[in-house]
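Internal tracking record. Fields below are filled automatically when a chain is submitted to the structure queue. Please do not edit lines marked as system-generated. If the sequence contains nonstandard residues, flag them in the REMARKS field before resubmitting.
Queue: standard
Priority: normal
Entity type: single polypeptide chain
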Amino acid sequence: MSISTYAESLRALKSKTAHRLNEVGDQWRTPDALYWGVFAKFGPFVLDLFSDGDNAKCPRYYTVEDNALTQDWTKDLAGRKAFANPPYSRASYEDKQAITGMRNIIDKSMTERDKGAKFVYLIKAATSEVWWPEEADHICFIRGRISFDLPEWFIPADKKQESSSAGFACAIAVFDKTWRGERMSYVNRDDLLRDGQVMLDMIAAAANKQEAA
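SYSTEM-GENERATED OUTPUT FOLLOWS
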């Protein structure tokens, strides 16, 4: 399988001995408590659609090299649900095949949704953007700005690069043609984080119990 220029650039970025915040781009990580809060509300999820291989939230995931926009989500999910915090970088292509770009991602999303795939996005609440998924089956706006985490491979080049809130307004978009609930709702960020932490505590307790057995 040939490696795209986008994937090669990401590999090169990860291998650097030091990084700057403005290089992180698509690789900001969804905080674990937030992911598990979304999981508790709209999951369960078995597949992470957009991963760099190090930041996947699900047991199965597509990497940059896999290019989710070329995969058959509906077949791979087989009736189960996927999660994604999609990349927001400018559209890029390799041999005329889209790799990134929110308009490309939403186009692919609607195609897979119509085929029967079920998936949930954590996205910027950017309703004025041309890619905004007006045709999603449900939009849940999060009250409170969301701060994302730096990648685990990030090595700060200096003190100024050690932390950043990277916070903005977010929403949860549900793509599921069997959805029969309301089209729009709201949830408090702190409630999502609380519910997510409960899930994390349960997972940790189960792991500790298994280790002790």
